Amino acid sequence: MKVKKQYSLTLIVLITVFSSFAGAQNSSEDDSTITYPASFFSQYGPVSVNDMLNVIPGIGLALESNEVQSFNGANRGLGGSEQILINGKRMAGKANEASSQLDRIPADQVQYIEIIRGTSGDLDVRNSGQLVNIVLLESRSNSNLSTEFGMTHFHDGTVEPVGTFSISGQSGQFDYLLSADIKTGYEALDSFELSVLPDLSLNDTRVFERVREKTTYTLNSNISYQPSPSDRIAFNGLYSESDPPSSLLRTITDFQSSPVSSSIEREDIPATADSWELGGDYEHSFSNGGKYKILFIVNEKNNTATRQRYVADAIGSPEIKNLFLHTSSRERERIVRTSYAWNLADNQNLELGIERAQTIQNSSLRLGSNVPGVLSADHGGLTPIAVPNAFSTVEEIRYEGFAVHNWQINQRMSLESSLLYEDSQIKQSGDINKKRNFDFLKPKIDFRFNLSNSFQLRMSAEKDVSQLSFRDFSAAINDRDEEQDTFAGNPELEQEQVWRYNVNLDYRLPNDGGVLNSRIFYYNVGDSIDRIDVSTSPTNLATTNGNVGDGTVFGLNLNASIRLGFVNLPQAVITAGLLVQDSYIDDPLIAMERRVVPFDRGNFSVGFRHDVPSKGLNYGFNYRDGFDGNRPFYDINNVIFIGSRSNLNLFAEKVGFGGFTYRLEADNVLDHDSCRERRRFSGYLRDGKLTEIERFCTNNGVRVTFKVRATF
């Protein structure tokens, strides 16, 4: 407890020092919205909106949200928050949302870009931090063709294509953007695992070669029509397909046998994946200032994978199949959201609305093994192994009513308060039949005080309720431990509930000199999700994801983005970030205190970008790393310690021959090894009987990408 008090004191001292520095700056302006006209960017020769954003100091802070991390990352429904607006509007999409369009919108269509640091009833979304609003020109008739083609070279010599083709334009009140993308997800991993016994004698070594072939093809469309000044209609569509098969070759050397022996394990994992989404919205503005909005989204995701493992004494020797593991899932969403907003007074606005979301997920798992029994063609010619809760359909019907009140207290202070009521029913059928009902109240208060146009204090308190991952309801692949192929589902799982408190100080240096930002946060986490004990006996230990109790998270996030004008390099920007955080929860599974999943100890980053407009050139680097020992994952009989995951990225870009933009990127330049250590125990981990230590490192090599871009 003494360490925790010292850590908290350190956070308070750091935030006080940082705040004092920011408060020493002077600005007499009161408007908290920062505007960059198109003329500001012309000297840089941008091709797309992304190119324009990249030259704005602190843009990463503006796009960074303060969302609470959740164990499973599920994101059903829509909600009212967004970080990027186009013409002041959110896009009617989830996978097909505004941030995915930034490379496709030509720079010459932009009138100006706003960084909105305040809250207002005039905004199309609730501002959880800062918003980026991209305002396009109101040209009556024009069209643009944008292209980007390139190749990525991987460390094993493989070369994969990347590219985007898009056409956008306006004709009267009709706007459109159509695009096609090809992206590579190819991955070639070289891994090595060393296993030692408690006396540090050598147990075995494992050498892995893993290759994943993945290319994603995406078709995208965004169409809007404004039949009158008070009406707007928009539609968005997306289709994406990727077949990500992978293969693995594992060489195992057993040093405990006499003589030392070796064996080969080979795995083939064919897989398919596709998704589509369709969204639309309608907005009507009334003469009294009121605004009515209705939005819908329907989407679907399909994934299948089949893992088959073969063993042999050596490469080329006869193989024996000993594992068949087939998984498939289909997830569908149908969302409708509608609201009405109006001015209660000159400085107050109220929005009332409701959202309905239906989510359905079908999942199945078939496991076959090389054991005595009746062989099955549906299980790869092996003996079927019964897996509880392997076939499941989960359906959620969720209603969320919301009221959002914006109050501009005076020219420098604003208060946004909201109250959301969620009512949902989750029904599971298949191997298990169960129905449960949930309801939650989720209040939020967001207060902002602009000491000037440059310096802003932001404080918020909010209750957040996580979305449950339907994958946790039924049996699934265990991706943490290759010695345990599957883990059981948990139809009793309940949502995490988090009270989060944030204090944010944001300072923009004079003359667009940069941004300084600090955020201190404190979270109370209820019903945290991690592994729970579902063992049938002390000799048959098993876990699944479940609610483990209540925890606490706290930390400090410091960020800076500064132009180097003080050393006569006004077109150079250096960025730096530091996140330090800690958390604790008493875990009954291991009978000890540990960190709250998925919060680690933190990370740091540094970046540099130098634009040379006279030569049409920019170059720089970005480096990011975490703290060693960041993220331990405890299970019933083992624990994994994951090391830092550093990455150095270099880039250079030049506007050259024919007006084309040429870009060269190198990723993972330091060829970093990602390492982890697993400690296995006999029986329960809490009993402390260590049996094995595994040290595992993997490397995906240096990746080099060359791209050529242009707008016509």
Describe the fold and architecture.
The chain is mainly beta and 712 residues long. It has a single domain (27-711), classed as Maltoporin, Chain A (Beta Barrel), CATH 2.40.170.20. 5% of the residues lie in helices and 60% in strands. The strands form 3 sheets. The chain has a 22-stranded antiparallel beta barrel. It has a 4-stranded mixed beta sheet with strand order 1-3-4-2. Strands 23-24 form a two-stranded antiparallel ribbon. Residues 1-30 have low confidence and may be disordered. Its main location: membrane. Pfam families: Plug (PF07715), TonB_dep_Rec_b-barrel (PF00593). Residues 33-121 form the TonB-dependent receptor plug domain. Residues 225-669 form the TonB-dependent receptor-like beta-barrel domain. Belongs to the TonB-dependent receptor family.
- Which band does the percent of strand residues land in? over 45%
Q: Which fold name is given in CATH as the topology?
A: Maltoporin, Chain A
> What is the CA–CA distance across the termini?
63 Å
What is the top-level CATH class? Mainly Beta
List low-pLDDT spans: 1-30
Radius of gyration, Cα only, in angstroms?
A: 27 Å
The CATH architecture would be: Beta Barrel
Shape: globular
Largest sheet: 22 strands, antiparallel, barrel
> Helicity, in percent?
under 10%
What structural class do you assign from the helix and strand content? mainly beta
Q: How many distinct helices? A: 4
For the record, what is the CATH homologous superfamily label?
TonB-dependent receptor, beta-barrel domain
Family: Belongs to the TonB-dependent receptor family.
Subcellular location: Cell outer membrane
Domain TonB-dependent receptor plug: 33-121
Signal peptide: 1-24
